[in-house]
Design goal:
Elements (H helix, E strand, L loop, with lengths): L2 H13 L23 H11 L11 E5 L5 H18 L7 E7 L9 H11 L11 H12 L5 E7 L1 H8 L2 H12 L4 E8 L10 H7 L2 E5 L4 H15 L7 H13 L4 H17 L7 H21 L3 H15 L5 E2 H15 L6 H13 L4 E6 L5 E6 L4 H12 L5
Parallel strand pairs: 1-4, 1-5, 2-3, 3-4
Antiparallel strand pairs: 6-8, 7-8
Helix pairs in contact: 2-3, 4-5, 9-10, 10-11, 11-12, 12-16, 13-14, 13-15
The protein binds a DNA duplex through helix 4, helix 15, strand 7 and strand 8.
Length: about 400
DNA sequence: TGTCCACTGGAAGGGAGGGCTT
DNA sequence: AAGCCCTCCCTTCCAGTGGACA
């Protein structure tokens, strides 16, 4: 690219009409003051947590709802307000501690040990990242917790991911710790994307964890519109976002189980595209582009972060798919995977393990795998891909840098 | 009606990478 | 340094299974 065109890019950028006033408003980090259509849930949570202000222990809460229905947002909002009130309330705040942990964070809090070390870290102590017996960590956590009189509120976000991975033992222990505490009190707020999750855990844990339940239904298109409008006025300059664009973002996100995060992402990316092209107003086409880019980016990012063998398995699926196969079976994939390993000098894993890797790929949504029975011809998983051709090309591009094809 | 396929998914255990205690 | 413990990723072994087919 020559000097001239570079110049013109920068010129365009500085001269072009600005669209964003404050882009951060459209990210998850931002907590709006007003959360439309969640008044009921907020009130519910607030009522449940209010006893903290009188130094009593609130009930544990179980919160369900799909992604982007405002679970974390509302919880944080209530806790923030709670702390504010406590501060005004002559120093009860000192006795309240809140901890927020996202259980899904890979390599951070997705096992019992790592979650505990996170909890301990939140009390300002550090623990080696491997090596100690788990009960030692429990002990330490217990000591830190009970070191002084305090009311601890522990938010475990995406708790279903943790439990499906390592079982409910940790929840049992955490709820039991509470009964042994002498000075302090521990309240657990579990947040789950999966509604049926609570049915599959130990009944003792269930009853203690879901003393109170709060449900976050998906937003419909109209509610999403309200949410977007609320933020548009803060994030964008006036008259840069037509109503039709808001409606489109809302409609697209409503199709996807009413996900507000998606709606906001669409708007943000559409804005970025418009701004980069020197438009002063966002158009519906920009939203379309934003959608396909969001999908692509998400998928690519997930694939990039997979371990080598998962990538190899995914590549095997992709190859089979490219060969025109639909409803690919575990066996086919394993054969293909074995070839890939051979060509690339990888030590191949067993079919048992590959079977688990396929389930993992299914869990993170890269493939669709269903266990079916073909009668005489056995029982297997049927694996399907639903990715656009364009995306498949990009993925192949990415993987060809890592594998001999 | 029973058989039997091609796996699934549970269980147990090993070894690599690590830390603790003595 | 020895001995013991952990987690994580993986292997080995195997019982279990839904439904097409004889």
């Amino acid at each position: 690219m020559g000097q001239i065109s570079l110049m013109s890019i920068f010129q365009n950028y500085t001269n072009g009409k600005k669209i964003f006033k404050d882009k951060d408003i459209l990210t998850i980090k931002f907590t709006p003051n007003n959360i439309p259509h969640r008044e009921k849930q907020i009130e519910q949570i607030a009522l449940i947590l209010a006893p903290v202000l009188r130094n009593e222990k609130p009930s544990n809460i179980f919160i369900y709802g799909k992604t982007g229905t405002g679970k974390s947002l509302c919880t944080n909002h209530v806790i923030e307000k709670l702390m504010e009130t406590a501060k005004q309330n002559n120093g009860t705040a000192e006795n309240i501690k809140t901890i927020y942990i996202n259980c899904k964070m890979r390599k951070v809090s997705d096992t019992e040990y790592r979650l505990l070390s996170q909890l301990i870290y939140n009390f300002g102590e550090e623990v080696p990242y491997t090596g100690l017996p788990t009960d030692r960590l429990y002990q330490k956590f217990y000591q830190l917790l009970d070191a002084k009189e305090q009311n601890v509120i522990l938010v475990l976000d995406e708790i279903d991911a943790l439990v499906s991975k390592i079982g409910d033992g940790i929840l049992y222990n955490l709820t039991r710790i509470n009964q042994e505490l002498k000075k302090s009190k521990l309240t657990i707020i579990g947040i789950s994307n999966n509604i049926s999750f609570i049915d599959n855990i130990d009944p003792r844990v269930r009853s203690s964890l879901s003393e109170e339940e709060v449900i976050f239904p998906p937003y419909n298109a109209n509610e999403l519109k309200d949410i977007l409008k609320e933020r548009v006025s803060l994030a964008f300059y006036p008259e840069t976002v037509p109503d039709s664009v808001i409606a489109k973002c809302a409609a697209l996100a409503a199709q996807e189980h009413g996900d507000a995060r998606k709606a906001l992402d669409l708007l943000r990316v559409a804005g970025e595209i418009a701004e980069r092209r020197g438009f002063s107003v966002i158009t519906e086409e920009h939203v379309d582009e934003a959608e396909s880019r969001l999908d692509t980016d998400k998928t690519i990012e997930i694939i990039k972060t997979q371990p080598k063998h998962s990538k190899a398995v995914f590549l095997a699926i992709l190859n089979q798919y490219r060969n025109g196969l639909k409803n690919i079976q575990t066996g086919d994939i394993f054969d293909q995977y074995a070839q890939i390993c051979k060509k690339n000098g990888l030590k191949q894993l067993t079919q048992r393990r590959v079977s688990d890797l396929i389930s993992e790929l299914d869990m993170i949504g890269l493939v669709n795998a269903k266990v079916i029975s073909k009668g005489r011809y056995g029982r297997t998983r049927e694996i399907n891909l639903n990715l656009s051709n364009k995306l498949i090309e990009k993925i192949e591009d990415l993987l060809s840098k890592e594998f001999v094809l």
